[in-house]
Amino acid sequence: MKHKLFGAAVAALALITAAPAFAQTTDSSPPSHRRLELAKEVMDATGMRKQFSGMFQNIVSQAMASATKNLPAAAKARADAFVQAESDVMSKYAPQFIDMAQNAYAETYTEQELSDILAFYQTPSGQAMTAKAPLMMQNMMGGMMTLMPKIQHEVAEEACAKVACTAAERRVLLGAAGAS
User: Fold this and answer.
1) CA dist., res. 55 & res. 19, Å (int)
2) Which of 35, 56, 62, 96 is most enclosed, with most CB atoms within 10 A?
3) pTM metric for this prediction
4) What is the pLDDT of residues 11-40, one digit of tens each?
5) Apex 142 CA angle, 138 and 147, nearest 5
6) Judging by beta carbons within 10 Å of its beta carbon (0-12, 13-18, 19+), is residue 128 exposed, middle or buried?
7) What gap in Å lies between CA 106 and CA 40, rounded to an integer?
8) Alpha-carbon span 16 to 42, nearest angstrom
């Protein structure tokens, strides 16, 4: 379940931050007040503004939980302190991430495109898309997470081949990848 939550959070973050990059606005002028307002409304309609607040804390916590599961208690306690510090700092910057995402939408999409996107998310289908997005991500990540042990094992093998890991390093890397 932790892997699914982490994967879903990472995928959601990637989709949220990457989506504006895939579209090209036909209006290269700085975003108008109206485009910024429409971008804010799109973020509100998709639930993105709410999701940003807790997302970073969950991403950090899930990543560290996975990375530290095989550590001794003393090392895990130090890692937990790091997680808490990173979570606190990321939470502090969440409003800036939200503003950056809003600006990216306003800079990427034209006023008409933002209006159309907003109109879609206000329809029953758009609202269903927003409401069902976590389930869709969970379903998608379930399949992706089945590949993660294999991917992690291959990464460990390739890393050790490149840097000539010691036997102890190899055991740690392969242990973290779910191998023995």
Assistant:
1) 17
2) 35
3) 0.58
4) 444 544 444 444 454 556 789 999 999 999
5) 145
6) exposed
7) 9
8) 12
